[in-house]
Structure formats: structure tokens, C-alpha cells
């Protein structure tokens, strides 16, 4: 025969408080708290996304996004403009350039021939485009040269220049310093010859 509930010892019976439901007001407080947290998260994300639209350039906003004015963009085929201290630190400095109408690029001011090799300084005030200097692994007489889009221009440049992601919105240029477009190492292919070696210049 089965055991009935009333046959169990009294000390094992559940007390009357176990039958009481959770007070309704506590449920309302919990739901309201969850809604508030969700709304606060949405507002925070929205403010971060819209930050570039209401700051005064130049300004660095959350997400490592640098906001510049479109007036900072050099004219087509004009020498690149270096953006560095005090706007950004040396590790994030770059050159803003417009190699063609409507094409705005942000070339990093440092370059590594290969991932395992030390960084070189990049200068952008050359007729060709860019030149890497102070490279321990590249002979001074064979400076690595790049065109205005950061592509290798001679055999000393085994890979192109890395870039930051750039977007232009209205009167603002947004450079995402957390998004690096890395250039791949060149494996083959001819490069132009007879290129004049630019003089080393200070940025």
C-alpha cells in the first residue's frame, strides 16, 4: 500500500508559510529593476554611438574614436597631414591623406617590416608618398618607400603601411584607433625601378 501524506510524522510536514506566494509588490520591484537596467544599458550604448556627432573636433570619444573636422583632410594629391601629440599619443599617431577625391586614408606613423621586427618611423612629406626611416633592419641607402595609398613602392618595403579605419560623416572625420587594417607581406610581383630616394625629414 502507498504511504499517505497524513501518515508522515508531524515534524516532516511543511509549515503553513510554505504555501504563501511571493508578495506581488516584490515581483513588481524585480520587473521594474530589470527594465531600468535594460533601459540604462540602451541609453549608454546610444550615447557612445552618438558621441562623435556632438563633440567639438578634435576630440577622442569612447571606443578610441578620434573625431576631426573635414577641414583637416588634405586636398587631393596634397602632402599628407600628420596627426599626433597632443591630440593622440605617439603610439597612435598617423597621417591623414586623400590620394583621390572622396578617398580618405589614415596611415599609421610607424611601420614594421615583419611582425617580429622592430618598428620604424614613417615620414609622409615626400613627393612619392611615404618613407620608413630609422629602421634597424633596412639599410639607410635602401629606405622602404610607399605610395600614397600605403602600398610598397620598392623592394625594401616587404609589406605596406598599416591603416586605421576611417569614416567621413557630414563635417566630421572619424578615425577608429582601435581598428587597424594590417597590410599583408608581399610575396611576389614586380615593383617600380629607378625611384629617387627621398631625403630623411623630421615629422
Q: How would you describe this protein?
A:
It is built from one helix and eleven strands, in the order αβββββββββββ. By secondary structure, it is of the alpha+beta class. It has one helix at residues 24-54; strands at residues 59-61, 65-69, 81-83, 94-100, 103-108, 110-111, 120-123, 130-133, 144-146, 163-169, 172-181. The relative contact order is 0.13. It folds into two domains: 16-54; 59-181, 3-layer Sandwich (Rieske Iron-sulfur Protein), CATH 2.102.10. It starts with 23 loop residues before the first helix and ends in a 22-residue tail after the last strand. The longest helix has 31 residues, at 24-54. A seven-stranded antiparallel β-sheet has the order 1-2-11-10-5-4-3, with helices on one face.
Spell out the key features of this protein:
2 domains, 7-stranded antiparallel β-sheet, Rieske Iron-sulfur Protein, 27% strand
Layout of SSEs?
Elements: H1 24-54, E1 59-61, E2 65-69, E3 81-83, E4 94-100, E5 103-108, E6 110-111, E7 120-123, E8 130-133, E9 144-146, E10 163-169, E11 172-181
Antiparallel strand pairs: 1-2, 2-11, 3-4, 4-5, 5-10, 6-7, 7-8, 8-9, 10-11
Which architecture of the largest domain per CATH? 3-layer Sandwich
- Please describe the biggest sheet, giving its number of strands, its sense, and whether it closes into a barrel: 7 strands, antiparallel
Structural class: alpha+beta
- What share of the residues does DSSP label as strand, in percent? 25-35%
The average pLDDT score comes to 80
| CATH top level assignment of the largest domain | Mainly Beta
How many helical elements? 1
